[in-house]
Protein backbone atom coordinates (compact mmCIF):
# COMPACT_ATOMS: atom_id res chain seq x y z
CA UNK A 1 0.00 0.00 0.00
CA UNK A 2 3.00 2.30 -0.43
CA UNK A 3 1.91 4.98 -2.88
CA UNK A 4 4.56 7.14 -4.40
CA UNK A 5 4.17 10.83 -5.09
CA UNK A 6 2.56 13.37 -2.75
CA UNK A 7 1.37 11.93 0.50
CA UNK A 8 -2.33 11.21 0.28
CA UNK A 9 -2.78 9.74 3.75
CA UNK A 10 -3.91 11.78 6.73
CA UNK A 11 -1.82 10.05 9.37
CA UNK A 12 0.35 12.88 10.76
CA UNK A 13 -2.45 15.44 10.68
CA UNK A 14 -4.92 13.19 12.45
CA UNK A 15 -2.22 12.14 14.92
CA UNK A 16 -1.58 15.81 15.74
CA UNK A 17 -5.29 16.53 16.25
CA UNK A 18 -5.82 13.42 18.38
CA UNK A 19 -2.70 14.13 20.43
CA UNK A 20 -3.88 17.65 21.08
CA UNK A 21 -7.37 16.67 22.29
CA UNK A 22 -5.95 13.81 24.41
CA UNK A 23 -3.42 16.22 25.85
CA UNK A 24 -6.20 18.57 26.94
CA UNK A 25 -7.94 15.69 28.72
CA UNK A 26 -4.64 14.57 30.27
CA UNK A 27 -3.81 17.96 31.82
CA UNK A 28 -6.79 17.72 34.14
CA UNK A 29 -5.62 14.40 35.55
CA UNK A 30 -9.12 12.89 35.78
CA UNK A 31 -8.62 10.46 32.93
CA UNK A 32 -6.27 7.48 33.24
CA UNK A 33 -3.55 6.75 30.68
CA UNK A 34 -5.38 3.58 29.71
CA UNK A 35 -8.58 5.54 29.09
CA UNK A 36 -6.62 8.10 27.08
CA UNK A 37 -5.25 5.35 24.85
CA UNK A 38 -8.71 3.98 24.15
CA UNK A 39 -10.03 7.51 23.56
CA UNK A 40 -7.16 8.32 21.19
CA UNK A 41 -7.70 5.16 19.20
CA UNK A 42 -11.45 5.78 18.93
CA UNK A 43 -10.95 9.41 17.93
CA UNK A 44 -8.31 8.49 15.36
CA UNK A 45 -10.62 5.93 13.77
CA UNK A 46 -13.60 8.29 13.78
CA UNK A 47 -11.63 11.13 12.16
CA UNK A 48 -10.09 8.83 9.56
CA UNK A 49 -13.57 7.66 8.63
CA UNK A 50 -15.07 11.17 8.72
CA UNK A 51 -12.34 12.67 6.53
CA UNK A 52 -12.01 9.77 4.11
CA UNK A 53 -13.74 11.41 1.15
CA UNK A 54 -12.99 14.95 2.26
CA UNK A 55 -9.21 15.14 2.02
CA UNK A 56 -7.62 16.98 -0.90
CA UNK A 57 -3.85 17.41 -0.54
CA UNK A 58 -3.79 19.27 -3.87
CA UNK A 59 -6.37 21.78 -2.49
CA UNK A 60 -5.64 21.76 1.24
CA UNK A 61 -8.45 24.12 2.25
CA UNK A 62 -11.21 22.42 0.29
CA UNK A 63 -13.55 20.82 2.82
CA UNK A 64 -11.90 22.60 5.74
CA UNK A 65 -15.24 23.46 7.35
CA UNK A 66 -16.37 19.86 7.15
CA UNK A 67 -13.17 18.64 8.82
CA UNK A 68 -13.14 21.33 11.49
CA UNK A 69 -13.67 20.08 15.07
CA UNK A 70 -15.70 22.52 17.08
CA UNK A 71 -16.76 23.06 20.68
CA UNK A 72 -18.94 26.09 21.37
CA UNK A 73 -21.61 25.49 24.00
CA UNK A 74 -22.14 22.28 21.97
CA UNK A 75 -19.71 19.39 22.03
CA UNK A 76 -18.35 18.15 18.71
CA UNK A 77 -20.17 14.84 18.09
CA UNK A 78 -16.97 13.08 17.04
CA UNK A 79 -15.30 13.96 20.34
CA UNK A 80 -18.33 13.01 22.42
CA UNK A 81 -18.62 9.68 20.63
CA UNK A 82 -14.95 8.81 21.29
CA UNK A 83 -15.34 9.96 24.90
CA UNK A 84 -18.35 7.69 25.25
CA UNK A 85 -16.00 4.75 24.69
CA UNK A 86 -14.32 5.53 28.01
CA UNK A 87 -17.51 6.46 29.83
CA UNK A 88 -17.07 10.24 29.86
CA UNK A 89 -20.40 12.08 29.92
CA UNK A 90 -21.09 15.37 28.16
CA UNK A 91 -21.02 17.40 31.41
CA UNK A 92 -17.64 15.84 32.23
CA UNK A 93 -16.31 16.66 28.76
CA UNK A 94 -17.41 20.26 29.11
CA UNK A 95 -15.51 20.45 32.40
CA UNK A 96 -12.36 18.90 30.93
CA UNK A 97 -12.22 20.73 27.61
CA UNK A 98 -12.24 24.43 26.76
CA UNK A 99 -15.71 25.96 26.34
CA UNK A 100 -14.71 27.39 22.98
CA UNK A 101 -12.36 25.40 20.81
CA UNK A 102 -11.88 25.26 17.08
CA UNK A 103 -9.47 22.72 15.62
CA UNK A 104 -8.72 22.85 11.90
CA UNK A 105 -7.35 19.62 10.44
CA UNK A 106 -6.15 20.32 6.91
CA UNK A 107 -3.61 18.58 4.68
CA UNK A 108 -0.13 19.72 5.80
CA UNK A 109 -1.43 21.90 8.63
CA UNK A 110 -3.32 21.42 11.88
CA UNK A 111 -4.13 24.51 13.94
CA UNK A 112 -6.42 25.49 16.76
CA UNK A 113 -7.95 28.45 18.52
CA UNK A 114 -9.20 28.53 22.10
CA UNK A 115 -11.84 31.18 22.75
CA UNK A 116 -13.66 33.06 20.02
CA UNK A 117 -11.01 35.75 19.80
CA UNK A 118 -7.97 33.75 20.82
CA UNK A 119 -4.99 33.66 18.51
CA UNK A 120 -4.62 30.74 16.14
CA UNK A 121 -1.80 28.35 17.03
CA UNK A 122 -0.29 25.86 14.63
CA UNK A 123 0.06 22.33 16.03
CA UNK A 124 1.46 20.57 13.01
CA UNK A 125 2.94 21.92 9.84
CA UNK A 126 4.48 19.97 7.00
CA UNK A 127 6.73 22.52 5.37
CA UNK A 128 7.13 20.55 2.16
CA UNK A 129 4.66 18.03 0.79
CA UNK A 130 7.52 15.58 1.40
CA UNK A 131 8.90 16.05 4.91
CA UNK A 132 11.71 13.55 5.45
CA UNK A 133 11.20 13.41 9.19
CA UNK A 134 8.94 15.83 10.98
CA UNK A 135 9.14 14.23 14.38
CA UNK A 136 9.01 17.62 16.07
CA UNK A 137 6.30 18.80 13.68
CA UNK A 138 3.66 18.20 16.30
CA UNK A 139 5.15 20.32 19.06
CA UNK A 140 2.78 22.64 20.84
CA UNK A 141 3.83 26.17 20.02
CA UNK A 142 1.37 27.87 22.30
CA UNK A 143 1.33 26.18 25.67
CA UNK A 144 1.14 29.53 27.50
CA UNK A 145 -1.68 30.61 25.21
CA UNK A 146 -3.59 27.55 26.32
CA UNK A 147 -3.03 28.24 29.99
CA UNK A 148 -4.14 31.83 29.52
CA UNK A 149 -7.31 30.67 27.80
CA UNK A 150 -7.92 28.30 30.69
CA UNK A 151 -7.53 30.87 33.44
CA UNK A 152 -10.26 33.23 32.29
CA UNK A 153 -13.69 31.62 32.07
CA UNK A 154 -15.86 32.85 29.22
CA UNK A 155 -18.52 35.50 29.80
CA UNK A 156 -21.35 33.02 29.42
CA UNK A 157 -19.78 30.81 32.06
CA UNK A 158 -19.67 33.66 34.56
CA UNK A 159 -23.33 34.44 33.78
CA UNK A 160 -24.44 30.89 34.54
CA UNK A 161 -22.53 30.80 37.81
CA UNK A 162 -24.03 34.03 39.15
CA UNK A 163 -27.61 33.40 38.06
UniProtKB/TrEMBL annotation:
GO terms for biological process: negative regulation of cell population proliferation. SMART domains: btg1. GO terms for cellular component: cytoplasm; nucleus. SUPFAM superfamilies: BTG domain-like. PROSITE patterns: BTG_1, BTG_2. InterPro entries: Anti_prolifrtn, BTG, BTG-like_sf. Residues 51-71, 97-116 form the Anti-proliferative protein domain. Belongs to the BTG family. This is BTG2 protein. The gene is Btg2.
